[in-house]
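Data's thin. Show one?
=====
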Amino acid sequence: MATLIIALRGDNMATARPVKFKVKVDLAKHRAATRMLATVMKKSVQEVLPPQVASVCVMTSNAIKPDEPQDLERIMRTKAMWMLRINGKARAGRDSTAVNIGMKGRWGRAWRTVHRANGRPIHIPYHDNDFSTQDKWTTGKSSGKPLPENLRSEHNAKVNAYLAVYGNMHRNLDAARYLTKRSFMDIANELCRQGGFTLDQIRPRIRAKDRSKIEKATTIMGETHVNGNSFINARTGAFYVRISNSFPNWKGRRLDAALGKQIRRQTNLIDRQYWRGIFENSQKMLKAYPWIKAKP
């Protein structure tokens, strides 16, 4: 499984593994901004970096859109076939049931493939789009002739089992849409636990309309799975914050680009706050960084 791992270091910021960001992000500039923030707050980098990284993760979670239902449905259709060992196309030399998952054409066309004595396959189209039952051939020289009944029951058993597995997964569709967003909140929550502050002390906050859905997010199988993790290495001379996101489709969702963009935004925000004099006013600074209360 591919894993996106980046270490944000307070002393010498670098990647734990090479990560090619899809958007331009200057980690050295973020390191300098973090040091400057620690100076104006009269805190150590060790105190400042963990909540700042947690903030980046919250920002990333807010920026990511929930997965599109149709994308998850295609994954569910494919996984159901894999679980039942049903193919999306005829298997050479082997009798089998195949289902069109909708990548080309409409979902639900299903047929039974059998082989003649000479080895040539016959594809019997028992189901058309959306699993509508067919009683006659619709194409070729046999068009209009009745389909053979002797294989229908075996074929229907496979299709019904497939629809049952798919239906069980589809019940988790709404919860699974927010699993990508949750992967970054998993990181933020672990940083809070290790760093001694809370999510409510982080700015920005997770969007109120999304928070409950993120907390209840599951896989398409209905399982609660932690994809994001973090580690604060507080050893003398080697302080760093390591964050990892093992969401299976992080490349397809371009999560590296989403994270890189929010790192850049946070860097620019600190710079703007400095020039606006936010750090010269303790009330404004406390409003922008409530976690300071947790760091006496």
Q: What stands out?
A: DSSP finds nine helices and six strands in the chain. The chain has two domains: 4-67+177-294, 69-170. The longest helix spans residues 255-275. Strands lie at 4-9, 96-99, 110-115, 121-127, 228-233, 240-245.
